[in-house]
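Example record

The entry below shows one chain as it appears in the dataset: sequence first, then structure tokens.
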Amino acid sequence: MPFPGGGADKVGNRYELRWTVRQFIRLLKGDATWIHLEPIGAEGERVEFRLGHNDGRIEVHQVKRQQANRAHWTVADLDRVGVLEGVRKHTVDGGADFVFVSTQAPKSLPELRVRAEIAPDFPAFQASLPPELQKDFDDLQYRLFGVNKDFDDLQHPLFGVNNDQQTWRTIRQSRWIAQDERELDDTILALLGAYLTGDPQAALGVLAMFALDAVHRRITPQDLWGELEREGILPSDIARDKNLVVRLRQCREDYLQSQEFTIGGLVLPQTEADTAVAKFRDPTESKSSIFLVGPAGVGKTGVAGQIVQRMAEIGWLVLPLRFDRLDPTQRPVEIGQQLFGREKSPVAILAGLAAGGDCLLVIEQLDAVSVVSGRRPEVFYAVDALVREARAYSNMRLLLVCRAFDLDHDQRLRDLRQQEKIRATSISVGLLDPVQVKEAVAHLGLAPDRLTPGQIELLRLPLHLALLAGMTGGDDSRSLDFVSPKDLYDTFWRRKRTDLLPMPGDQNSFEILLYALCDAINDQQALLAPRGLLPSGDADLDRLVSAHVLVRQGSRIGFFHEGFFDYVFARRFCEMGEPLLDFLRSAEQDLFRRSQVRQILAYRRDDDFDAYLDDLRNCLAAPDIRFHIKKLMIGVVGQVSDPRPEEWAIFKDYLQEWTGRLADSVRSALWSPTPWFRFLHDQGVLATWLASDCSETRTFGFHWLSRMVESEPNRVADLLEGLAGLSQEQDDRVLAVVTWSGAAVFSERIETLFHRLATQPERDWTFTCKAYQGFINTYCYHPNRGGIGVACRALGCWLRLLMKEPGRADLFAHDRETQNVITEHQLAELAKRAPEALVEAAMEPFRELLEHAAVREGAPPFADRIWHPGFQELTHWAPEYLLVSLVDALKQIAVSSPDQFSAAIDRLRRSECRTAHGVLLRALAVESGGLEVFRHRLPGGDLEPVGILV
């Protein structure tokens, strides 16, 4: 019978019970020597248990699942529920390490603990604290010792040491852990699977029941092993099983041999592999997982192969899993059975073999389990379980390889990435560099100088380069006669068929085997098919595998790449002449059909354009074709490189009314591709949209201009210039596009157009001020470096505009519109990021404005109507910020651009205005003694001729 209080609470506290079992595992591993559950008396006050280490250290654990109506624990919360009392009793007074565990994170204590641990002494620790953490440290000190920070010279009556030092030591002896229940369960099951035989769930049940019956007892590892052995659960033999070591090595070799990782034998090192290897090897890297993402065919598997090879070479145990080539299952233990002949999770086997050493789990072809691919979405549950298990091992790193489209559009994969956000970083696999493409083409024995820019762009996709490599040899005169991916696939098909034609069997065995495999894969909706479903003729099959047309995985056969399967399927489908509508109606319109529909449309567009148009019209109009298929078809048309009028005629029908699901899909398909923008511009469609009476159509057109200005600046400029001056409403829309899209960065014509429209005679001063205010704000902070130059030139134009209204900039005019055109921070940004551009654009307009506003009374230097206070006390007055920024910019270019600096100060020297002289003198006050350094560069060698005030 348990005692009242904490012991009785054990039965109802599942979270606390799980945490106790987690500590039992530490005993089983040999990391601890004993655990005492709910000790009676002072040792058990405010803690759940005490745990002893081999070196004599003692830990005490306090578990609080959560608190109501709070997202985290503050220092005050912990004091209120008695946790800090436990810290005082067991750590401050008793010297034990204190561990607090909850599903809710303490607000600041984990960060304080990290800073305390890395600081060599208290002064270094205190110096590292930002104000918010310093406040929490002071609060903790007060609640532990009753000492306020204002009396930190007081000493603790028990220890006789400074309380700052004691609080720092206490923090170093504490750990503050936040772990949700599911993650805790995953960790326990993963560890039990690695260290024990049998079902880890059964072992968890045995240990949990033992904990309930052992309250107030001191437990040793021998007690736990004895209880487990009575239930037939023994220590795992994974680390001693030589067969598992051999199988792990075989898994790695099979993976590396299952894919051609070279281009005609040439390895193309990729920077993404270098980045991943460096992150995995960096002991200071806090993120243990990497998502390797990229579009289809970009070479993700090739990069993953380089990572696997290099990590194995430096001594890591590596287990790569290709989920497009495993038998479908939702249970990790069944994957272990497939690969190792053991009903254990691959994570447990890898962890057991690593025995605490560094290891890497690779989950390849993650997109094969997405609902977007539609092939085996149920297998995601096994992937999810493996990822959660891997988190339990600090020595295990995780590489997840996935197609970017699936990761972005599959909610489950997005959730997985979000869950791993704290632990994971993403690396995007990009296209090959054009230099690499030419190197590979030369390696294949072809002439890289014969490649057109369009061909180089096609070959930057490694899949296309692999197709080119597969069709070289013999007469290569036609190898470079391609303009599209289909051309590459067609030539690859013809070359492989020709090379393999003298087969012992049927002269058509090439087509027979490939089409039979295509049917089997289509029927099973998996990328590998059992050998038994294919025609007899192992010799023919072996030759196709040797020629890298097919791949073999045990007793199953597949195409060398999913893209080639899609091509073969589309080729056969189009040869049979079946309408796409009939095909879709004859089978489930599930997600598996998506890639087939995409490839059929691409193939038929090249092969039979009229049939392709019929497919589009009929499928889009058919009410029984599912929306996701129609949306995909529209997307395929949106991606064509040479839009045709017949395709636009189909799209146009769905844009007659603004609303409608297909109308939205058509607009989305048009949103990004440059070819469609060019086509509709040249057809006059865009100009019609921009002048449309339909506000939605007009708005879409203007937004599209904003999006396309970077890639098509001249066409966008044509359209905007054509609209300017038609009406005030259209001018406002043009100004909005130019101002907020950043269009002027990419086109001088558009920049000029802004200044023309913003300063039209019929516009009032307030309108002009607001136009320049928005324009300067956008371009001052534009991510493209050219934006800062646009902002500088706009400032110069603005200063010239002020010559017409100099009184508006007067301090006493209180003209808010004028003074708000540019802020102090924006001027500081211009001076810091582009001092040369600021001086070039603004110095002469500034000098001209001074001359225009000068009060020519008496002898020079003259005061002026704008800066008459000069550089007196700063008044937070907008024109004064300009003076400060010009000085800062001049000081910077004094070193970086001395010729420009000399020319600028010469213009200032020749001015008859006091404000110009003030800017000059402060600009010369550079650390290197600018007045002397540049005196020899000034005409006349001194400053006296203009009566400058020194």
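Notes for this example: The chain has a mean pLDDT of 86. The first helix runs from residue 6 to 9.
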